[in-house]
Amino acid sequence: MTHPRSIRARLITLYVVTLTLIFICFAGYTYWGFKQYLIRSLQQTLTRRAHQIASTILVDIPQKGEGYVGNEIQARYAPELNERIIRITDQSGRIVYASRNADVLSKPPSVSFDGANTETLPVHREETLQAKEDFQVASIGYRLDNGARYIVEVGTSENEIFSALNGLLLTLSIGFPVFIGLTSVGAYLLLGRALRPVDEIVRSAERITLQNLSQRLPVPETGDEVERLSLALNRMIQRLDEAFQVASRFTADASHELRTPLTIMRGELEALLKEGIANEDQTSQVESVLEESERLTQIVEGLLLMSRLEAGESQTSKDPIDFATLVSTTTEQLSPLAEDKSISLDCETGRDVMVEANEIRLKQVVVNLLDNAIKYTPEGGKITVRVTGEPSWAILEVCDNGIGISKEALPHVFERFYRSEQIQARKARGTGLGLSMVQSIVDAHAGKVEVESRENEGATFRIHLPRLQLQMARKLNLSPLD
User: Fold this and answer.
1) How far is CA 62 from CA 69, 91, 147, 402, 456, in A?
2) Which CATH superfamily is domain 7-164 in?
3) CATH code reported for the domain at 225-310
4) Is the pTM of this model over 0.90?
5) Does residue 40 carry a pLDDT above 90?
């Protein structure tokens, strides 16, 4: 469904509103133009009728008299039957002939003869009768050979004009919603076609991660803003890739270089402790330095591991694994740590929950989650480890009833070196890399990590990994874990 504030929705709205205004203007102009055309046609018809009356009937007045005019008009034109109004007056204003409905007409207009012309130019007017019915009236002046002058007026109702206009208005009213509907559908299809390159760019951008920064967005050869946007985004991705490669190489190189001196330091300190130190204070100091060097070694190892994961190490060493067996075995290995704190550690696993993964890295995920749960669960607490299988996912849940995670800290728990104020206040030891390492390993296996927690109510970490069906695992010659 298109969002009402999206570019597509706004463009469609603008397009439809613009065409609606154009349609309204066109309809208004058509209505006005058609009305003027009908009025002019009616006026021309009335003028021809007045000219016929003058040239075929009035011309015989000198021989047949004015009485002949009324009978001839009734015989030829029957104005009442044809809904016409006919009135003839002489130059003094005397009515020579008037149809029965001519009494509603106003005073005849004044006409002026030009030179020797027998007939004057027509004069048109619109009159509104008492019944609110509009009439068009055409008037001409006619001069006989004997010099007598007459004004011929012919009028008729505008009802036929308004009937035709109402028909046009009805057609436009019915056509308007059809026009708007077709316009909206057409606009949606046209914009969908025009924005298709943008959709492809969005889909390609969503597939780019730290593991495939070498990929680039498609560049449509349209020569417009979309092409320039794709090129600009590709240049940005290239700069990000280069910056990430530099940072990753620095982290990996620094971690690798630090491992040797740290190993030497630890060896020297351990040897010093074995030889014995007379001064107890110095012994305590050496033990403290040794402990910190071990912590620093863990940090270096963690950074080196994440650098390798980000470089795509896990993509080259994946094997079919019985995830349930792996979790069960690892939980059993860590159970002594829970027993030392009188923590109940339960493991519930299903059967044939297969994944394709790096076994060593996946075991690190389980160890880190369990180690955290044991570390932050008070004595007498409870930890539940559960493995379930869905059609597409293998799910690991580690639930505890420990100190939990505050609402403020929850969005940051997977950040490197992040340690909440709650943990710092308890002076719990750790590197701040455990959960970050978990997320890096899970991301490298195309999985996802979720956490639910409330402060002082425990936490639940949930790992989703793509599930490998048992039939596929057998084809790959999976050997069950011991």
Assistant:
1) 11, 15, 10, 126, 123
2) PAS domain (3.30.450.20)
3) 1.10.287.130
4) no
5) yes
